[in-house]
Amino acid sequence: MNSTTPTTAAHPALLALICKALDEKKADDLRVLDVSEQSSITDYLILATGNSEPHLRALRVELEKVIDATGTKILGMDKGLESGWLVVDAFDLMIHVFTPENRKKYALENLWKDAEDIPVEALVNPEAYAAKVKAGGGKAAKAPAKTREAPVKAKAPRKEKATAKVKAIAKAKRVAKAQAAPKKKAAAAKKPAKKAAKKK
C-alpha cells in the first residue's frame, strides 16, 4: 500500500471524526485506506478491531452518534448478531470493525494493497503529527494526488452506487471467506497425517 502524509483538509471532516471516535472508544489497529482510485462504490475504507462482541456493539453505537451528528445518512449497517464483523456504510466512507479473530481471518487490507494508506495519527491528532513530521519523525508532506473538486473519474449515480455497494460488501465477505477456507482445509488435512505418524 502507498503511504503518504496527508493534510487533513484533503479528506472529509467525517473521516477524522470517525477515527477520533474509534480511537477514544479503544478500537485497536485502526487503518484508513483511500480506495477512491480503485473502487467506484466508496472513497475510504476504515478498518478497526474491537476486543469482543459487546465492544463491537459499543463501537457501532458510537459510530451512529458521530455520523448522525453530522447529518450524514447511514445507507446501510450490517447488524448481524455475533458475526464478529460490523459494517457501517456512510456512502463515501465504509467502516469495517472486526473481532480480533475475524480481522486476522479476513484481512481486508490485503484485498486493497494498491490503496493509499492514510496515517491515522494525521487524522486523530493532526497537530502532533505535523510536529512529528516537522521534526523529521515522519515523511515529508505531500500534496494529495487528486482534488475533490475535480474528480478524475465519473462516479455512478448515488442510488446505483448504494446498490453496488451492498453487492460489493457481500462480494468482499465471500472473497474473504473463500480465502480463509483453504487454510482451514489445509489445517484439517494436516491433523490426520500427524496422528498416522504417531501410530507408526
TrEMBL record:
List the GO biological process terms. cytosolic ribosome assembly; negative regulation of ribosome biogenesis; negative regulation of translation
A Gene Ontology molecular function term for this protein is: ribosomal large subunit binding
Q: Does the keyword Disulfide bond apply?
A: no
Compartments where found: Cytoplasm
Q: Where is the composition biased (Basic residues)?
A: 168-200
Q: Where is the composition biased (Basic and acidic residues)?
A: 146-163
In the record, the note on similarity to other proteins reads: Belongs to the Iojap/RsfS family.
Oligomeric state and interaction partners are given as:
Interacts with ribosomal protein uL14 (rplN).
UniProt cross-references to HAMAP family, sorted A to Z? Iojap_RsfS (MF_01477)
Q: What is this protein called?
A: Ribosomal silencing factor RsfS
Q: Which organism is it from?
A: Nibricoccus aquaticus
In the UniProt record, the gene name given for this protein reads rsfS
